[in-house]
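look at this record:
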Amino acid sequence: MAFTGKIGVLTGGGDCPGLNAAIRAVVRSGIAHGYEVIGIRNGWQGLIANDIFPLSDHLVSGIISWGGTILGTSRTDPVKNPDDIAALKRALDEQGIGALVVIGGNGTLSAAKEVAEKGVHLVGIPKTIDNDVFGTDVTIGFDTAVAIVTEAIDRLHTTAESHHRIMILEVMGRRSGRLALAAGMAGGADQILVPEIQVLMNEVCSSLEARSRVGKKFSIVVVAEGTRHEDIAGTVVPACDRDECGHEKFVGIGNFLGKELERRLSIETRVTVLGHVQRGGSPTAHDRILATRLGIAAVEQIHTGSFGCMVGMQEGRIVQVPLESVAGRSQGVDPKVYEEAMNVAGITEHK
């Protein structure tokens, strides 16, 4: 049975390039189907507070190239408080919103699954520069972030070679090193360190020393922020040291790694923490196309009355994945791809 009613759209969690392209696609596809599309400000927080406004073709004109999200975002989790669920459902009823498009990463989509179980009709769209959402080969924002990090590696390469230094680039990746791995491969990094694969400091030092022995007087090391080294004192985050969302506060693995390498190898080392630069700016053509296709697909799901799912991309095709299969799961680095990257870098032995 075809859906009738208004469609709401929200963006939750961290921002990334491509969100506005997805919003634009939802609005235009919704209008084409005869729906009124409602924008919800600041993620779940805006829905709980009934902070909404109508979206029109005019409002989304030209935003496909913009970074960030015109809707704003937050990390509010609506399922932590029963009162928030009640407020959320009340806002939907008052505004006549019959279905939601929820654009987010692992946390937002896990919350979406629980909200859907409370009787709310919704469809999810995956976004995150980490590219670790289960059920899709790629997420909105990943391609742009890889391009940004790769450019940073290229720029560091020239100064590293000029000064015969070790350059360490710390990138985002709390639990997944897929961004570090992809950009490290694209930028020709000499060592890539990720949370999923333990590499001891002795191994890192041996590989960099081997480069120096054959006349390669500089090295590029890419490290994901969530990487832990139990053999370096101080890099393991205490269980109690968490932010307001329950996430571990990072200690700056790049700086720890830089000091340790300089101490052990006596080679001048410099550290660059790329930070939120990775999440900003205009999306690549790939991210714009992906976001547009997923936005259209989400509205199609709503139009056919198919809810409680996420639209994703698998082997170049749009797929629908039940949210219950997505929530609480993530995709990490493929060990085979990591091995390939290390082989190309000339590092073949890792535990």
